[in-house]
Each structure stands twice: as C-alpha cells, then as structure tokens.
C-alpha cells in the first residue's frame, strides 16, 4: 500500500483549517483507502456526521481512485446511500474503486464502513474526463 501525496487546500484531505485531514493510500489492486473521524464541525443530526460531509469524503475517495487509474476527470454525478448514521468521534474506513469506463465517462464505487465491516454509506459516481480543468496532476504517489 502506498500513500497518496497531499495536494492542496482540499476540505477532505488537505491541510487547510477545517479540513478533515484524511490520508489516502492506494492498495496494489488499485483501490483507494483511508480512514476518517467526523468531529463536531462536521455534525448534522445531533451527535452524528452531516450527510454532506459523508458525501464529500466518498466523492473525494472516488475521485482519487479515478485519478490514480489515469483519468483527469471531474465528478458529473455522485449518488450516496446513507445506510446507518455515523456517530461523531468514531473512526470509519473509506474505500473507492473504478468500475467501468465508457467513452469519457468513468464510473466509480465508494464505501464508508465501521471497523466491524458494517457499511455506513455507499456511493456511485460518474466522472467525466476534463483535463482542461486541471493544471496540476493530483493524487501522485507520495514518493513519485
């Protein structure tokens, strides 16, 4: 497993104030993984993570998987199924992988799960190649 390089002021994985500070890794099979602990600043329902923050983590993880697969793409659609509430201050695991590719559309799947493996949320994303939007290559491996 190799750590992905930090890439700027991202609210999910960046170092800016208020960022969740998620660190992503890529496994040998191409799956992007990480862990996140939602705090009071990410609260939605009392004592639980906000759905928008959950979606942001899944979007970022799927985007990282798409970029690591070689596509300079941006999200066109992200659908999230919220299966169980995520309590604040409890670590959950995120993983994302690329599904199929059709033309410029790259499909990805994401999942947040509790340490026992129970799914908390799942996501499906469609990303569209859009290299003109990016002047930097994101999600390099840290030592690359």
Describe the structure.
This protein has 144 residues and is mainly beta. It has one domain (2-133): Hotdog Thioesterase (Thiol Ester Dehydrase, Chain A), CATH 3.10.129. It contains one helix and seven strands, in the order βββαββββ. A seven-stranded antiparallel β-sheet has the order 1-2-3-5-6-7-4, with helices on one face. The longest helix has 18 residues, at 51-68. The chain is globular and about 40 Å long. The two termini are 14 Å apart. The model has no long low-confidence stretch (mean pLDDT 92).
Using the CA coordinates, give the radius of gyration. Answer: 14 Å
Our measurement of the CA-to-CA distance between the termini, rounded to an integer number of angstroms, reads: 14 Å
Largest sheet: 7 strands, antiparallel
CATH class: Alpha Beta
Residue share in helix: 10-25%
- Pairing-aware structural class of the strands and helices? mainly beta
In short:
The chain is mostly beta strands. The protein has one helix spanning 51-68; strands spanning 2-3, 25-26, 32-37, 73-82, 91-102, 105-113, 119-129.
Feature tags:
single chain, 144 residues, mainly beta, Thiol Ester Dehydrase, Chain A, seven-stranded antiparallel beta sheet, 1 helix, 12% helix, globular
Present the secondary structure layout:
Blueprint: E1 2-3, E2 25-26, E3 32-37, H1 51-68, E4 73-82, E5 91-102, E6 105-113, E7 119-129
Antiparallel strand pairs: 1-2, 2-3, 3-5, 4-7, 5-6, 6-7
